[in-house]
Amino acid sequence: MSTMSYRDAVAKALQDSMRDEPRLIIIGQNLAGHALKPLVETYGEDRVQDCSISESAMVGMAVGAAMKGWKVVVMIAYADIASVCHMAIAQSAAKLPYLTNGRLDCPVIIRLPIARFRGHGPEGNEVGVSWFYNVPDLNIAMPGSANEAYWNFREALQHPTPTLFFEDRSIHTRSGEITEDSPGGKAQITRSGDRLTIIAAGRTAALAEDAADEMAKHGDGHAVEVVSLGFIKPLDKETILKSASKTGRVLIVQDEPPWSGYAPYVRCLLDELPAGSLAAPPRIIAGADQYLPFWDERPFLPSLEGVAATAVEMMR
Amino acid sequence: MTATRTTPDAGSRSAIEWKLYVNMLTTRLFEEALVRWEHQGKISAQTFPSKGQEAIAIGCCLALERGDAVIPSFRTRGAMVAMGITIVEQLREFIHSPLAAGDSRDAPHHASWPERGVMPGSTMIGGHLAMAAGLALAMQLERKGEISLAFFGDGTLGSGDLHETMHIAGMSRLPLILVCENNGWEMATSWQKVRKTQSLIPYAEPFGFATRSIDGNDALEVYSAARWARATASDGQPVFLDCMTFRAGLYSSHFGEVRGGVEKDLAAWEKRDPLKKMTEWLIGHGLASAEDLERVSQQEEQRIEDTLREVLAETASATKELG
Question: What are the boundaries of each domain within chain A?
Fold first, then answer.
């Protein structure tokens, strides 16, 4: 058990996976010269493959290598670029096990760092989860803590179907404890409370934790429960419904616009609860339905103040 | 072998020339039957006949070795035939037999038998080429000398994935063979409307591929080029085979013929029909007589008809058992 930053947790997951999985390779750009220098020194350029700026072919190649029983991590520079390789993800990678009637697995991770708040502008600050949410057999991880970052990554490589790993750079320096055991793909209750459940993933899970802590400082201790989803697909329905039943109030926070994504899906899931289970209608705080300007993305995204204010209002 | 011999003996039947002939014959008759059966309502899957182009898939796949992998295009049923996938196994996929290895999930032209080297293709034109490169990358890492081969039509030149794949494979020296079935048409559009040269070699060469332009209607030439390509790719030099040919059959069983003004071309290419060419070769070299081959053809046609009946009966009984 150790404490480390979110960024280091991802790096450690990659290192430990390379150590434990002799048939794992990494494909990406600028790996040997920059991003993964130490891994190249340990495992050589065979297992850490530098590639040209050909994201679509990189994902397609990962699928081909998987056909021969290899596991592959595809390093995409940032999440927006998932649009460049959408075909390879949605057609080639996600469908391989289905199309072959399970005779071929596709244990591939496509690493997609979310790069907001770094001045990349509207073509470099998207999340893009919703572009893929309706693709069957595609796992989507959106870790909100160092522990989730580490374990979601390790678990993804054990899946027979591919995983999009949306790592959020805006919480890279946030530290947390890495547990000895894997949470096994389950959502994590990161703050325990009894009056309101905030369900979130990635940066918004961290935001929800901060909001819960702020509210505790102002006398609302143990009121807010935070469910950090980690894997938003498959989704840990059990933990969500259990927490919703316990608190009776649910606020769902996501960084993307509300048309699609885990927020509207979780909102629908709550309909499975017996009538009268909830004390208040569930609410969603989502990103604005617009692109995010490079000079400041924050006004258009869920904020700590906004989450806290809505939580207080819901508990009134 | 003498010129007077009229019946192929066991020795000659194991010869590559005989295998090329038989595999092309099976593919031709099977595809004709598939179109017929579909129009008769016996099966319901679209077929993209490879008539006139059979030598390419078969010449290439018969040149492969154990452990090699092939990704067919949508017009290379001959690849499945030459890789040893029986008509029974293929038909099971067409009719969703409970015994279909792939559970009839993928379209029948993309059906796969991974454990026997026939990998799933992609309906996204060019998408499968990157997968073939990934297979080749795995083979390069495993160092067993295996190679990966993918088929595609010349219209794939417009796909970004072809260029990305050639870019990577050329630099990484992947054991990859790209086989272009260059019939000069992308559905209803002739090559002159969409590119500068009919040959794709000027596009492939600068990426670092060893290239050869060959007569795609000459099964022996395809086979010998594919043997060279296999040895070359296995040594770490990717190969691009540009196989010049012409589609003599329908675009597909659904669309029929979609090209305008090809009557003269069809007549000219009819004389270069690959099956006819191989038939003449076998007769000319005394490996068979015209009568032998006519008999073989009739027997094969009957076998294919019988196979549908068997597979339908087998499916009915398996369904009942599951029932």
Answer: 2-178, 188-315
Flag whether pLDDT at A267 surpasses 50.
yes
Residue whose token pair is 């700026």? A53
Q: Which two tokens stand for residue B173?
A: 């020296």
| Cβ-Cβ contacts under 8 Å, A100 against chain B | 102, 105-106, 112, 114, 120
B102/A99 touch (CB, cutoff 8 Å), yes or no: yes
Tell me which chain B residues have a C-beta less than 8 angstroms from the C-beta of A29.
none
Region A110-132: what's the mean pLDDT?
A: 94
Check residue B9 and give its pLDDT.
52
Alpha-carbon gap, residue B281 to B287, rounded angstroms: 8
Q: Report CB contact under 8 Å: B167, A91.
A: no
User: What pLDDT does residue B8 have?
Assistant: 47
Phi, psi dihedral angles at B81 (to 5 degrees): -60, -50
8 Å CB contact of A67 and B168: no
Interface ipTM > 0.90:
yes
CATH superfamily of A2-178: Thiamin diphosphate (ThDP)-binding fold, Pyr/PP domains (3.40.50.970)
Q: Please give the model's pTM, rounded to 2 decimal places.
A: 0.96
pLDDT at residue B322, as a whole number: 72
CATH number listed for the domain at residues A188-315: 3.40.50.920
Topology of the domain covering B10-322: Rossmann fold (3.40.50)
CA distance A106 to chain B (A): 12
A291 inside 8 A of chain B by CB: no
Query: B81 CB contacts (<8 Å, ≥6 apart)?
Result: B23, B26, B27, B30, B57, B58, B87, B90
Return the structure tokens found at B90. 């293929």
CB spacing of A98 vs B105 below 8 angstroms? yes
> Rounded to a whole number, what is the distance in Å from the CA of B33 to chain A's nearest CA?
25
